[in-house]
Amino acid sequence: MPDAAVPSTSSLTRLRSAAADCRACDLYRDATQTVFGEGPRDAAVMLVGETPGDVEDREGRPFAGPAGRLLDRALEEVGLDREHAYVSNAVKHFKFHREGKRRIHEKPDAGEIAACRPWLRAELSVVRPQVLVVLGATAAATILGRSFRVTKQHGEPLEWADYAESSPLTTDDGPPIDDAVVVATVHPSAVLRSRDRNAAYAGFVADLRAVPRVLSPSS
Fold first, then answer.
1. pTM
2. Which UniProt keywords are listed (predicted)?
C-alpha cells in the first residue's frame, strides 16, 4: 500500500487538491470523490467523524447528510456555529456495499484508517484547534488510540497532552498539535440509529455543551 502523497504545506486548499488524487488505499476506486475537511483555517473548534456517507460522497462535503443535519442542530443548540468550525473525517472516501440500488455504509478497516491518517494529521497541524471534538469510536481510536472508550469519557474535557505521546497521529516528527482540549462523544449517526432517539440526542447535546465551556471558561 503506497503512502499518501501529503504535501508539506500550511494551505488547506493545497491539501484538499492533493487529497483528490490520493491512492493510498483502494477506497478511491468505488467512491465518487475524496471528501476532504472544510472550514476556516483558524477555527477554534475542529470536529472529526468516521467516514463520508452516501450524500457526502455525492456532494463532496463532510457531514452533508442526515447525520450532518443533526450535528448542525446540536451545535446550534449549544451556541456553536458550524460555519466557524472545521469539520472532517478520519477517512476521506466512502466505503460501502450495495443492496439493490442503495449504497450501504461500511466501517473502514485498520489499513484504510492508517492510509488516511497522514491527511488528518496534516489538517490538524494546519488548523491547530483550541478544542478537538471526536465523534465516535473510529475517530477516537484514530486520534486518541485504540484503548480510549467514548462510552466512559464522553463529554469530559481532556488534555491533548495526556494522549499526544501514544496517539496514532504522533510520528517521529512529533504530534500534529502541541496543545488542545479534546471532547469525545458519539457519532451523530449513532443518535439516528438509537431506539430512543430523543434520549440519545439529549446525551449528545449534553456532551457538546463542554465545548463552549472550554472556549469561554469564565462564563
1. 0.94
2. 4Fe-4S, DNA damage, DNA repair, Hydrolase, Iron, Iron-sulfur, Metal-binding
